[in-house]
Amino acid sequence: MRNEFAAELSAIAAEDDRVVLLSGDIGNRLFDKYKASFPDRFYNCGVAEANMMSVAAGMAMSGLRPITYTITPFTTTRCLEQIRVDVCYHKAPVIVVGVGAGLSYAGNGPTHHSCEDIAILRTLPNMTVICPGDAWEVRSAMRACLQQDNPAYIRMGKKGEPLVHEGMPDFEIGKAIVMRQGSDVCLLSTGNMLPNVLQAAEQLGKQGVSAQVVSFHTVKPLDGELLDRVFSRFWVVAAVEEHSIVGGFGGAVAEWMSDRPPQKARLLRIGVADKFLHEAGEQEYAREYFGLTPSAIADKTFQMYQAIAPLQVKA
Question: CA separation (Å) from 11 to 6, 139, 150?
């Protein structure tokens, strides 16, 4: 995702001379093309992320369109006060980009894990929270965020994630994208879990369960119209995320449900358990540990469907 982010950044900077990039001392080679084209619009703020966020807020309030970029926990939890007071309170149009979200940097240990950021940032007034499902959604999200005049957080994976879309999707903030039709269960995916969720849907199909897949690239604001449709149609709706099940995407969907009349569907939240990972391993190991592989997602969904569907499903 980060390579496509860098490519799209150069493209939009060529179209809009208000765009500036602030980096927390990472991605220096990644942005070589951008720096060569726009040397006066790149600011390496060093390992001083809180200061970077305040600088970005000032730039935004001076008419620029700043984009901040660094590893996810360092641009969210480390900068929370500055995001809350300097950016969101003033409704400054800063685009906060976190790379390596969730368990992308699992091998670097808990300091680099980011499984709380959605829960924290979606509580902030004026903040939009976007979790693209692939690199094409990253490109689309960047352009969509520049069309609005309020803060936005783009939560990216790292690199090498499979492409799901064939090109720029029909992308609108707050409007989810149906990726696959189905009739029995619905899998709502946010962020870089989308390829795994699509594979899980294929596995469910082999078990006789037809699964719809939706890319919920926007966690705040939620697509309430689509949620209305899927919760009235399916027996099981699973919200899948590489984030803590406490306060994340699944929590946002549960909050939405609590304000509505009883629904047909049961909500299944699939995400990172409320615990730290104290074992060493890369992202795929961490996903297996927390049950976020395609087979684990399919198994959890199948078990709930078996338990509540009106007809017994053959195993």
Answer: 9, 10, 21
The architecture in CATH of the region 2-155 reads 3-Layer(aba) Sandwich (3.40)
The reported pLDDT for the residue numbered 310 is 65
CA distances from 181 to 43, 187, 224 (A): 45, 10, 19
Percent of the chain with pLDDT over 70: 98
Average pLDDT of every residue of the chain: 96
pLDDT score, position 103:
97
Reported as a single tens digit per residue, the pLDDT across 210-235 is 999 999 999 999 999 999 999 999 99
pLDDT for 220: 99
Question: What is the DSSP secondary structure assignment for residue 163, as one 8-state letter?
Answer: P
Q: So what's the architecture of 177-308 in CATH?
A: 3-Layer(aba) Sandwich (3.40)
Residues of the chain with CATH 3.40.50.970: 2-155
**Residue spans in the chain of domains classed CATH 3.40.50.920:** 177-308
